């Protein structure tokens, strides 16, 4: 029996902004159907690592492959990559001039050429899943932050990605709205979606992650299951980090 290939592989990746080395020789992999949480202090390179996976940032050297697609500037590869990878940001980035429904149907209609009625039926189904069906005809300004973020998740899912990247999806939210977004993410995790999540929500990480990666100054300092990471933490640097967050 052959072992399945990892869904994403990152091999000896380096990234600098000017003289500042932000990622140092990072090698790791992400398996299909698994949830990985990336932790680390501000500036440790978490966003840069995530953004390189769908070419929002270019790596300087090393190799990244996503579902067999080598991440590069090749137009065909980029197109294929962007279809497979969905991303949700700290700032929800919804199109302000479009209704919720039009936000969700926009990419399927433009990029995939999905007919309007079909795109809208699919969008309504996704909006139901994130609890936003009743708000389909509103504009983003009429929604709370938590509601906007749930729409942003539905919008990313509308392209039927094979992996979802989340960069601090609840960091810009008022505390009372964090749970409704995390609940949607938990439901997505249970459905078997491959997810890579940068977050400071430790309870969520412990409950949902299959694996925790800790980045420190551009290097992976630790890669462990959540139980070992949170309950048997022996690294002083990470213990200090956890102490600050808790
Ligand atoms: P994190 O998400 O862990 O807080 P980032 O990946 O955003 O860290 O950033 C890592 C380092 O790279 C930080 O020091 C940040 O200031 C720097 N950096 C990130 N993006 C850029 C950029 N576009 N230009 C210059 N420096 C950047
Ligand atoms: Mg960041």
Cα-to-Cα separation, first versus last residue = 44 Å
Report the structural category: alpha/beta
Total number of β-strand segments?
10
What would the average pLDDT be, to the nearest integer?
A: 95
**Main sheet attributes: strand count, strand direction, barrel closure:** 6 strands, mixed
Q: What do you see in this structure?
A:
By secondary structure, this protein is an alpha/beta fold. The protein has 9 helices and 10 strands. The strands form 2 sheets. The chain has a 6-stranded mixed sheet, with helices on both faces. A hairpin with a 2-residue loop joins strand 4 (61-66) and strand 5. Helix 3 packs across helix 4 (116-129). The model has no long low-confidence stretch (mean pLDDT 95). The structure holds adenosine-5'-diphosphate and magnesium ion. Magnesium ion (MG) binds next to helix 1. Magnesium ion binds next to helix 1.
In short:
The protein has 246 residues and is of the alpha/beta class. It is built from 9 helices and 10 strands.
């Amino acid at each position: 029996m052959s072992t399945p290939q990892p869904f994403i592989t990152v091999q000896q990746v380096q990234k600098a902004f000017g003289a500042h080395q932000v990622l140092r020789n990072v090698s790791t992999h992400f398996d299909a159907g698994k949830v990985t949480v990336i932790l680390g202090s501000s500036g440790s390179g978490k966003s840069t690592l995530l953004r390189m996976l769908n070419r929002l940032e270019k790596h300087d050297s090393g190799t990244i492959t996503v579902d067999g697609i080598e991440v590069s500037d090749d137009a065909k590869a980029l197109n294929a990559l962007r279809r497979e990878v969905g991303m949700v940001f700290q700032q929800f980035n919804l199109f302000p001039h479009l209704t919720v429904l039009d936000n969700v149907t926009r990419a399927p209609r433009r990029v995939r050429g999905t007919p309007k009625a079909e795109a809208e039926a699919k969008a309504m189904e996704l909006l139901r899943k994130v609890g936003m069906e009743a708000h389909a005809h509103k504009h983003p300004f009429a929604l709370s932050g938590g509601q906007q973020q749930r729409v942003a998740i539905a919008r990313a899912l509308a392209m039927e990605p094979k992996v979802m990247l989340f960069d601090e999806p609840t960091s810009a939210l008022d505390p009372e709205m964090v749970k409704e977004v995390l609940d949607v993410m938990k439901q997505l995790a249970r459905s078997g979606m491959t997810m890579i999540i940068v977050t400071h929500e430790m309870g969520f990480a412990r409950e949902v992650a299959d694996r925790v990666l800790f980045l420190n100054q551009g290097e992976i300092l630790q890669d462990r299951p959540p139980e070992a990471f949170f309950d048997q933490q022996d690294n002083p640097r990470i213990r200090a980090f956890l102490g600050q967050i808790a």
